[in-house]
Amino acid sequence: MAASARFLFRGANSKRSISSVKSGSYNQLRVTLLTLSCNSHVKSQRRHAHFTFQPDPVTTQYGPTQKMNMFQSVTSALDNTLAADPTAVIFGEDVAFGGVFRCTVGLRDKYGKDRVFNTPLCEQGIVGFGIGAAVAGATAIAEIQFADYIYPAFDQIVNEAAKYRYRSGDLFDCGKLTIRAPWGCVGHGSLYHSQSPEAFFAHCPGIKVVVPRSPVQAKGLLLSCIADENPCIFFEPKILYRAAVEQVPVEHYTVPLSQAEILQEGSDVTLVAWGTQIHVMREVAQMAQEKLGVSCELIDLQTILPWDTETICKSVVKTGRLLISHEAPITGGFAAEISSTVQEECFLNLEAPIARVCGYDTPFPHIFEPFYIPDKWKCFEAIKKMINF
């Protein structure tokens, strides 16, 4: 982008400063740069696509459905909440006009500027305000524009929101606070728009951490977070905002928290992932069956904290092998916690060492993203090693 801007300015007049560009030229420049950015975005999406989204079977148990992508399912969940709960408020950077990913589009017009409103660019202030609103009785839904920028709010989340109930002896709490944040790699996000920080918060008692894999799960899990009596962090895989499309129930429904879902039963290897990585693992399971004759049991963890140890351990007792995969760096990643727990609980059932296929211990790269991400080939090699152990 910056290089394109310099080129265009120099082409017009190399001695001319940005401040002296006339409004008409400047507007044309903005259009040109936006076009370049969009074209680059499309090409990047195609070049870096490392998975194929597979929708879940259509469910009718929650009533009529409508075709939605993930950001629309999030909007639907927020719409349901604002309609049913007069205390609900949504706030964050740019949410009033829909947000950078359009998850709140139309909500301000429908519910008013007092319930859907912008905040200053201050993540610590956003979460601090949300804590106060929740303590006062409001259903507070805060948006952090990217999960990569949640760190300035770390103190408010870890030292205030997570401990509010405990330090007051249950006299007060901010359990009606939900923090949403776009999460994970997107094909071109580089180091500041690709991070997966769930493990940082998994070390903090008092909050819940959730990552959905699809539009149906996103809406149901988000509504569960909003209704939960504990502060929740809801990470939304941004690469799925438009890539994932399903028939989503229109009305209010919930998906239980802290309950992993077995997406495919198997007998030889247990595969555990969450978010986008679930769709990578679906392909891995298919490859293992077709090329190796290996039957994989695929589990979507869904809730990172508190996580469903029972479902994972029962599966490993059956299969004797475990592969965990996530985009975040391997050292200190949540796969290590799962691995440690399974080692303690299922040691005598293991047929091979537990495998972790994760991101590298480096900042998230830009042009080297395809080499960084735990793609299906890396996971497939890990399965081969376990089977041949």
Which properties best describe this structure?
389 residues, seven-stranded mixed beta sheet, 14 strands
Structural class: alpha/beta
Largest β-sheet summary? 7 strands, mixed
Q: Number of helix segments? A: 15
The strand line-up of the biggest sheet is: 3-2-4-5-7-6-12
Low-confidence stretches: 1-48
The percent range for strand residues is 15-25%
Task: Give the N-to-C terminal Cα separation.
Answer: 49 Å
Q: Output the helix-strand order.
A: HHEHEHEHEHHEHEHEHEEEHEEHEHEHH
Tell me the Rg in angstroms: 22 Å
Helix fraction by DSSP (H/I, runs of at least 4): 40-55%
Written account of the structure:
With about 400 residues, this protein is an alpha/beta fold. The chain is about 40% helix and about 20% strand. The chain has a seven-stranded mixed beta sheet, sandwiched between helices. Strands 9-11-10-13-14 form a five-stranded mixed beta sheet, with helices on both faces. The protein has a two-stranded antiparallel sheet with strand order 1-8. Helix 5 packs parallel to helix 6 (about 155-160) and helix 12 crosses helix 13.
